Backbone:
């Protein structure tokens, strides 16, 4: 009887969406880098926002979610107007960590 109840409970959660990654609640180094360097423009939870009449895109969905790791890397390192380059603020390792953070934590991709 316990096995049946457990099975029903497990099936009830199967279709539930995963809780979205919370940057504010994360203690990770990458989340800290995001809060220090990216949140000002992309928003506290990377959902994008309007700034000085410009729409700053989400890093979770939309066009950012269609970019390859290399494209994200290039954008962070070299910038692309209006986004500034971070090659002088972040180390190579930090830029690579941010690419993985965006893909894995913010977009939920395992690639």
Residues:
């Amino acid at each position: 009887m316990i096995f049946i109840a457990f099975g029903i409970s497990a099936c009830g959660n199967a279709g539930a969406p995963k809780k979205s990654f919370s940057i504010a609640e994360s203690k990770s180094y990458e989340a800290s880098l995001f809060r220090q360097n990216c949140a000002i423009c992309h928003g506290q939870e990377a959902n994008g926002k309007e700034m000085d009449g410009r729409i700053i895109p989400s890093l979770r969905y939309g066009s950012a979610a269609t970019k390859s790791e290399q494209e994200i890397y290039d954008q962070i390192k070299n910038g692309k107007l209006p986004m500034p380059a971070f090659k002088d603020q972040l180390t190579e390792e930090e830029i690579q960590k941010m690419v993985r953070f965006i893909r894995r934590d913010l977009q939920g991709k395992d690639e």
In short: The first helix runs from residue 2 to 14. The beta strands are 49-51, 54-56. Confidence is low (pLDDT under 50) at residues 1-18.
